[in-house]
Fold these 2 entries.
Entry 1:
Amino acid sequence: MSTPVEIYDTTLRDGSQGEGINFSALDKLRIAERLDAFGMHYIEGGWPGSNPKDMEFFQQAAGRRWKHAQIAAFSMTRRKGTAVEQDDLMRQVLAARAPVATIVGKTWLLHVTEVLRARPDENLAMIADTVRYLKDQGLRVIYDAEHAFDGYKDEPDYSLASWKAAAGAGAECVVLCDTNGGCLPRDIARIVEAAKSAIPVPVGIHTHNDCGLGVANGIAAIEAGATHIQGTINGYGERTGNCNLISVLPLLQFKLGRRGVPEKSLPKLKELSQFVDEIANLRHDPRQPWVGQTAFAHKGGMHVHAIDRVARSYEHINPEAVGNHRRVLVSDMSGRTNILLKAAELGFQLEPNAPETRAITAEVKKRENLGYEYEAAEASLALVIRGILEHNPELLFTVDAYHVSMRRDSSASVCEATVKVRVNGEVAHTVAEGDGPVNALDGALRRGLSKFFPPLKRVSLTDYKVRILDSKTGTAARTRVLIQSSDGKREWGTVGVSENIIEASLQALVDSVEYALLKKVP
């Protein structure tokens, strides 16, 4: 392999500036520990002094042993008109006790004169003084050149002078930042090449995703000679986010032949992505490249037929290499191969030319035409397959009748459901209240069946979605209900369709319970 690439994670600082993201000090420590185990070279913990949480993180981090990563404290150059030894920013960086200081400074002359309102030569002195001082205090120093690309386009000589000031004062790496996220890959490559030929230290890259090019620009910089890349997990960051390291890491390894993190870490990439989303309390993006649920999902019959013969015919990489897996979807676009592969995934072995296989394919297409959708309702699909293979097997239970009503008690509305279920000729008639009609119906159904099947007490409804399928018919529109259920260890999805939302919900609930019983809830 060629020159390794240093991976610098700024999820805990730049990533936390994204809208809706708020990490506690404990959250930051948990994420840092996972990033360290994954093999990141640098973990930027925050800006010491900017808030109590960041300083608490650095205090905790200083007392821990890190296996792979070095913790970096972020700050800016000394203030205009202030001696570096007397600047509070420097005192805060030293108080963080991190081995690395990452210092951001002005590269764009527009910012120097109009925002900072400093003389150009004074800004150069601020950069050099800060880097030299922290270097003399025993810290490793990385210099982030803010607005490097916009500045170079306007005044290339001054931008180069600012980068040389940092390198000459002892910065180990000069990181060019596309702070506004407005550059194209060709701009990035051209200016990185100019920086490499002008300064004697390694060049790094820090990109933002405002044009949707954060990862592309990061890779363009690496191809142009940068050997250090900064980004965040899942692309968190201000505005539209930062360069997404979850995409960068496999691109380096599998597409460029460059080493970032240890190769043995990459099969845990999806797990890392999901872990950080969980800590951030964000829904994992199902369409995220490499690690999303749909990244290796195949729906079209022609595609599925091809991957059944040669997986790489429609997959750019083995999904397991990044901790993901192949998924075959079943819909009205499905061919017979979709059904065969999906059935095998669900535990059924079908023969390609068997009448049952043709019957299952036809039934799925008919149901999809009515509004059923099985991509997120694999449990309902399993029941359809079972029903045809076993030629209408005996039901474990039947719902003889149900009733849902709403009443008002004092100032609160109360939903009540009554369900009459039959198991082996024995009848249970139960009532339950709920936050809404579906919640009440779910409670009544499971309460009645739990008398016969006690493990159902461990099953709970975890998600409920409604989709109006033909809105032009107004309140008589057909409705699709998708339900997600769990027994604490497994999750499964079911679907129901009807003009009556309560009836559609009951279909999905009945499927959920039947599937749980067939799978023998622990």
Entry 2:
Amino acid sequence: MTEKKFNKYTVTAALPYANGPVHIGHLAGVYVPADIYVRYLRGVGRDVAFIGGSDEHGVAITLKARTEGKTPQEIVDHYHEMIKNSFASFGISFDIYSRTSSLQHHKTASAYFDNLYKKGVFEEIDSEQFYDEKAEQFLADRYIKGTCPTCSFAEAYGDQCEYCGSTLSPTELIHPKSMLSGEVPIMKATKHWYFPLDKYENFLREYILRDHKEWKSNVSGQCKSWLDGGLRARPMTRDLDWGIKVPIKGASGKVLYVWFDAPIGYISATQEWAAAKGKNWEDYWKKEDTKLVHFIGKDNIVFHCIIFPSILKAEGSYILPNNVPSNEFLNLEGNKISTSRNWAVWLHEYLEDFPDQQDVLRYVLTANAPETKDNDFTWKDFQTRNNSELVAIYGNFVNRALVLTHNFFEGTVPEQQELQKVDKHTLQVLSSFPDRIACALERFKFREALNHLMDLARLGNKYLAETEPWKLIKIDPERVSTILNISLQIVTSLGLLSKPFLPNTYDKLSKILNFGHLDWKDAGRSDNLKKATVLGPAVLLFEKIEDDVIKTQIKKLMDTKEEKKASAVQITPIKEEINYDDFMKMDLRVGEILTADPVPKSNKLLKFTVDTGLDHRIIVSGVAKHFSSQEMIGKKVTVLLNLAPRNIMGINSQGMLLFAENEDGRLKLVAPDTSATNGADIS
């Protein structure tokens, strides 16, 4: 299927933070689907610019630099190269992989801000923000930690709770502390330039909810939730010394907010690429016949669908994103991928442990892609999909067709002669696959597209099983000639259609079959390989992965967990000293859970009715991923009774239930003995 109204395509993949290596969650969520889509577009002859790069500003970088005793530039230089090389090794075919510390990007982002400033877009606002007196520095959101007001997670950042996913402002945190000194910050006056996001609500509702009803429900749903909650002006500058300097008077010591600067990185990278290729970059950003597509993870939806389109709209000359096919998260062996806990499969380590098997990981991550919900990667599933699908279905068909041709026709393509009913039916089905796969890819249904590709391999296996050329060779060689010709035509189409998904496999088949001049438009035909074409030797495209290999990978993960557990025991510091009077201010009581219900529109919160012995009260807690509603009913619990009430998703929560977090991130109930009386004082 062809979108004739679009003459050009600008496809971007989220800019990863250059403060660490990339892992399989990044590949599954963003980069493999983006690469599949781009390779498909190129295959059907579309004019496409595939833009990527490293996000090298923001607090995450400065925190890493402080931790390692290096400069921010040293950090980003190191990880930019590591990330760039990992992507290249996995065949992520960027037209350019740039970086936001480049001179071109600094010029572009600075000029963009200055343009909006001169248009009068920003609101200059004096406000009080957290300031660390000991460090003598204003604190960016990520320099502040405290207790989340939504789920009571004690390590929430000033901009987001990574446990429940709530977007926060630093002033909403309970017991905030500076990550620089550990001190309680004070409020101090500062000036910033705010983008009036609230003025763009009507535009965004029309743009997202009316004009783009084809967007994935997880994307439009999150956008609608933001819009329904009411937008407000957001500062586009920060008090930091690392980033793009704010290019106006009175802004000394301030840099552009990373989420203003980073998306403009797509534009500056396009400028670099276009200049090198002799193209006009504006054709890819300012022409109505260009389709702009952002591939991102779900944690970036608000920035790419709410903030960036509004900034583009404010400037006035840019096209808006046509689609933002965001994926959900990929978990690992039942637990959330965590870089801080080293609970991840890192790409550079995979390349060492599984040399020349990049396509296996691309296949598994696509087959198990978190397109509509969070999915789980397990090493056993990785092994099963490789052995039962790539080896037993795809590789088996290709190998059988090639080996039989070498055995019976000396490795040259035999002639296709008179067709029988089974041949005609098989060729008819073969001709349908390019459109079936293309239709799925145009709709960003990558798992569906991959299933169609595997069905083509199944078609080939079925055809060989039905015709049994090994039985006919001595009595009807002409019939075998036709069977193997058709089988090789199927192999050829399988190779051509594999290019977006399995680029290394495509390269191998291209050399074996000598079809270098063919492309996607030729797939599905019955005459791609000409009679007497000399084939290369039959080689195994995929190799079986043995149990001991998988056990080694699982052990590596489990060892990481044990190391983290031991490390936590050794280095977790005692919290600051309190006196007896401080402790006595806390009213801890025995309670009993009477009812437990999920909170609507939340997959993390549970609403409890608790018998405290003094009253029945409502308490909301972010534990739904650890406990079911039913298993909590009747449990004895420890309740902090005199915590000030908090409004959590419209519910007045009166108190806190106490839980302990294990080293694997799972919560355990801090529960009194079942014989304890409701309301009993804990002291």
